[in-house]
Design a protein that fits this description.
alpha+beta; 6 strands; 41% strand; globular
């Protein structure tokens, strides 16, 4: 599937405990349709990586203030890969962020 970068508006955000453990979602509206960003298992420190990654990228200081914020999304029909600042070339890719942490942990664990 072709990936596209489009402008989007955050319509709601959730943090909760799902069947697979803690998770978070950013619900987006773009071109008259909606799509979600998230759904990752956010245990063991991943929650702070996910939440702070989004807040820092979008330059918002509180999770609840994300609603109504405009951003860019890199997505295809079935998945949002990363979320970006509406004007700046600043992106958060959770898969990439989680992989960086895994790599660092390989070298710090005994």
């Amino acid at each position: 599937m072709d990936r596209n970068i489009e402008n989007a508006k955050i319509t709601s955000v959730t943090l909760g405990n799902q069947d697979h453990g803690p998770s978070g979602w950013v619900h987006l509206e773009m071109n008259g349709t909606g799509q979600g960003f998230g759904g990752y298992h956010l245990g063991g420190g991943a929650m702070s990586i996910f939440v702070l990654g989004i807040l820092n990228t979008l330059e918002v200081d509180d999770w609840s203030k994300l609603v109504g914020t405009y951003c860019r999304v890199d997505h295809d029909w079935g998945h949002v890969y990363r979320i970006g600042h509406i004007i700046k070339d600043k992106w958060f890719d959770p898969k990439e962020a989680f992989e960086e942490i895994r790599e660092k942990n390989k070298f710090t664990r005994k």
